[in-house]
Amino acid sequence: MALAVTNYGTLTSSAAEQTLGAERTDGKTYVCQVDLLNMVAGDRVEIRAKVKVLSGSTAAALYKATFANAQAYPVVQTPPIPAAYSVTFTLKRISGTDRDYPYALLSM
Q1: What whole-number distance in Å separates Cα of residue 81 and Cα of residue 87?
Q2: Are 24 and 56 in contact (CB under 8 A)?
């Protein structure tokens, strides 16, 4: 199974939920990796994966993880998520200061 980087970049966090890359609708399985190296004490961010269960349905949260303070192992990733119809990954600052977060969406 080949691995490909489908989106990558750096997102500056905010109190609003923001999309990492773009909604993926091509029927592949995805993993989202985020580098949390810039986090310090008092920072808290939430990473989510939202999927559509049926074509035309509304996207709903499938996965959510919250990370707080400086990270001993700063690169985190979602579990592999099959996107039969759609998957969207998001990042939101819950507390602390807005920071830059490099990310990559990998397809399998």
Answers
A1: 8
A2: no
